[in-house]
């Protein structure tokens, strides 16, 4: 059982300066919110242990939840896992292979619908837009309620995730090397999503069991104690994750689920057969070979049909740690690596429009403002070809020939032409969001007990930590680790987002 | 025995669930929100939504198109060049209507039918007609017959604009008939537009009828006499319909945009200001502040937003008279319109007379429409009038991304994504089409 209650009040228009009390507010608004959920669960677990080398765990669970339209709806989910310690089973006693364990598991986990998804409610009314706050009730002395834009669904089924996993764990060379490898395959069925729908239905989203998605991947952890002596230890570790996501199918009647950026430009969608949150956007018109079509003026021709322009999911993630200690000194370092993962650089698109991006002064190829350049298509790496029907100055048909027409690096290309994020396609602003980042590096010194004997301290250490001191990325914005919509499920959009902070922290730690 | 441990944990046995259902039922529904409400709380909500749709995104864009305001910064600068007017921009007004005000009005109609509250039903029908008129004049064909069906049909078909106009006239006639019938319960303070004054609602219905009949000026359905008759009906009862705003919260949407949230995005320069300067219009100081950023008459925090007005009706009447060959009557209506508007704004009587006397002696359609263009500032009607009559005679500004002034708004992105089979205009790959849809495409009444 989980219950949350929020009660609060806020006031605006304080009359007396520096007097922070509700009695001083010209406008006061109170709010109350209670959310709660009850779960009725029964659970059973069996553990079998054979000769200290084979372990079998079986579980089964049955839940009922208050958030279903029919609270009798059961959520049933079992799991089974088997672990074999090979070094015990085969009685291996070796300096090379100290420990080996294999594990296999299959687990199903069910979850209930979210709070308040089982019915359609009326909300205290308020009308706004992305531009202004608008109007909210109470307004002109009246109380207003409006039907929620979210269509409730009393027929929701439980959402299930089935995870099949195979893993192995090894300790080698007198425990100097540890390795752990896991392969997993995860299927999520009957995903409960507030699916966006056409507003003309009277709703903007509707709770549904919206589809099936899979995640397949590998996780590797590797640790090695390179040096272990009384005064000096050095170990290095690595983690590696590679995940592949695929939307297998969407519910009948659902062709696409858009993720909410609520923004002009590229956008993210869930479409059957594609990865979660695949980036869609508009592009240039292209011929059968994919070459962009350019008109007689040397500019590419805009196509409003939105196509797949990128995948925000990374190819792999890697972390590399180094920890060293020498006498009283300790040193830690964490490198963070992301390979792949596309980002829509809406910031660059907007700055092109306003002529405030450095490219509009001197382009990456060296073209200064006011100079001529031949437009280049970032997708194919060529200058595009002339569109069907294009004629040269002499009236000859040059359709299909490579574009050689110069255009100016000036307002005609950007604010008034198709090359900015506001006036042209969004595809040229999709960039590789890979990075190599020195996430943290720190050095600490711990004083000996003897050195602080005269004080009453039980311990004293000083140190310095650097965060994000180094970043290497092909991304042309400030920082590829960014997300326009905060902590929601969508990712891969940069529109004047705040970057990570780079910082150096000095610390003194004393134990009393 | 090699099995060292064998543990079975059973927290609770399966099947003992009968008693749990009632315990779960207690927490089934959201205690914060009602699942049924009355007409008294739906009506103000629908009216707030209507106010925002008449005062936020749509009129701001049409005022830029009509060069009554100039987009001078950020997205508004792009809008001034007809760039970045994409499908994404219209999710708000479309959603505010379909998933907001229009749906609440439909619920009021249903509740009114069930309880004999014809006063509420009549107001809901008239307001629905107003909102459908606003939407169809911007987008063309729109859903209505199949709209608001929720889970039964999440992909409603579109009605043609011609059918929507028929629906509007039917709703207005039925709404008036409802208001004339005895009602089980009547609105009061919950009616933010007319305070429960049903006669004023009937006048509003006549005013909307006059406006919509006049919109048909390019079609074979146009009938000038019925336009004039509807104007006279509305004017006889006085025909102001406005919605108010508050000083601290819930300010006028123009004020929120130009002063609070988006200062400097739009300023009052352009064709309208030039015309007013040339004619020494006494309304200039009421239209714009010294720094041209604020709109004293239309965009102070508490400025009421006009929905229908007598001066609009006098202009409509003048146009119909002029088209019908009655130049003398048209002149009279034109002067009534200007006096009505200036009086409403608080212009001195002597200044009104000076201005009216300074107008060109010959009465023609251009004079009427140019004067209406100035008076209908802040309303989307100026754009509709330009599309119908070609006045004022303006063209796309230098540097615009389109050679012509847009004649329609693109459908919202949500319809293209989630109701693609029904949206009447497919996204095109037309080389000249920067918006993804042809904004120079003409609506039914514009053809």
Please tag this protein with its features.
heterodimer, A: 512 residues, four-stranded antiparallel beta sheet, 2 helices, B: mainly alpha, 51% helix, globular
Characterise this structure.
The complex is a heterodimer of chains A (512) and B (447). With 512 residues, chain A is mostly beta strands. The model of chain A has no long low-confidence stretch (mean pLDDT 91). Chain A has helices at residues 86-89, 346-354, and strands spanning 2-14, 25-37, 39-50, 54-65, 75-85, 97-111, 122-124, 126-127, 135-136, 145-147, 150-151, 159-172, 177-189, 192-196, 205-209, 211-228, 232-250, 257-258, 267-270, 278-284, 293-294, 302-310, 316-326, 329-339, 342-345, 372-374, 385-386, 406-408, 430-432, 435-446, 459-472, 493-494, 503-511. The two termini of chain A are 41 Å apart. In chain A, 3% of the residues lie in helices and 51% in strands. Among the domains of chain A are: 1-37, no CATH class; 119-152, no CATH class. In chain B, helix 2 runs antiparallel to helix 5 (91-115). Chain B is globular, with a radius of gyration of 26 Å. In chain B, the strands form two sheets. Chain B has a two-stranded antiparallel sheet. Chain B contains 18 helices and five strands. The model of chain B has no long low-confidence stretch (mean pLDDT 91). Chain B has a domain at 37-222 and 394-447: Serine Threonine Protein Phosphatase 5, Tetratricopeptide repeat, CATH 1.25.40.
